[in-house]
Write a structure and sequence with these properties.
about 220 residues; alpha/beta; Spore Coat Polysaccharide Biosynthesis Protein SpsA, Chain A; seven-stranded mixed sheet; globular
Length: about 220
């Protein structure tokens, strides 16, 4: 059994298209949407296409993922961002290396953007930090599209809050000696642009990533 976990916060414009794509992928016996305190119609729309779990308030992606994991017994799980739209069908390819025993966790690598709207500094910081803490080079350290054997998550001591989730999980899994493989996929999601909202988003992301790396460095 394979379960897709979709954390969602105010994603009414994308959630249905994403869920339809996951159904079309034909490999997920269970699709769970964790609505993280959305103030729009995300939960209402998702209810018809997935098992719906709801947080009464916004707790962050890490909490949403933890809620989804606690509600499934599937040995294989896949994390999928709610804004992938039609391209979500391609996340099925993350399962192949695991099923062929080539990896314990896979990470989707998005196509390189023609213009770096986020300037690349957050990705560079995350990748550099992971390398310093584990000795592994990761090309897509912030990618939220991941598949894994659920059993490996027993080595994860905590799920970092905010935008440090992916970095925190990656470091903890690699420190335990699990195999990680990146898979290039033609995925697309809502881009963060060069406007004030984009700058605020990148600022929060940078702060959370640095905080997570600092905490992990203190753990040794």
């Amino acid at each position: 059994m394979v379960t897709a976990i979709v954390p969602a916060y105010n994603e009414e414009d994308y959630i249905v298209e994403t869920l339809l794509a996951l159904h079309a992928a034909g490999c997920f016996e269970e699709i769970i949407v964790v609505d993280d305190g959305s103030q729009d119609r995300t939960a209402e729309l998702a209810r018809s296409y997935a098992k719906l779990l709801r947080h009464p308030d916004n707790r962050g992606k890490g909490a949403a993922i933890a809620t989804g994991l606690a509600s499934t017994n599937s040995p294989l799980v896949c994390w999928v961002d709610a804004d992938l739209g039609r391209s979500a069908i391609h996340v099925r390819h993350l399962l192949t290396p695991i099923l062929e025993d080539q990896a314990d966790m896979t990470i989707a690598q998005f196509p390189k953007p023609q213009r770096k709207d986020g300037f690349g500094i957050v990705t560079w910081t995350a990748g550099k930090g992971i390398y310093r803490l584990t000795g592994h080079k990761i090309g897509a350290p912030l990618s939220g599209q991941r598949a894994m054997r659920k059993e490996i998550l027993s080595s994860v001591q905590h799920y970092p809050c905010g935008f440090g989730l992916e970095v925190g999980i990656t470091v903890q899994v690699l420190r335990q000696g699990y195999r990680l493989k990146e898979v290039p996929l033609p995925l697309a999601h809502r881009a963060t642009g060069r406007n004030w909202r984009g700058f605020v988003h990148r600022g929060r992301e940078f702060k959370d990533v640095v905080k997570t790396l600092w905490e992990l460095s203190r753990q040794g």
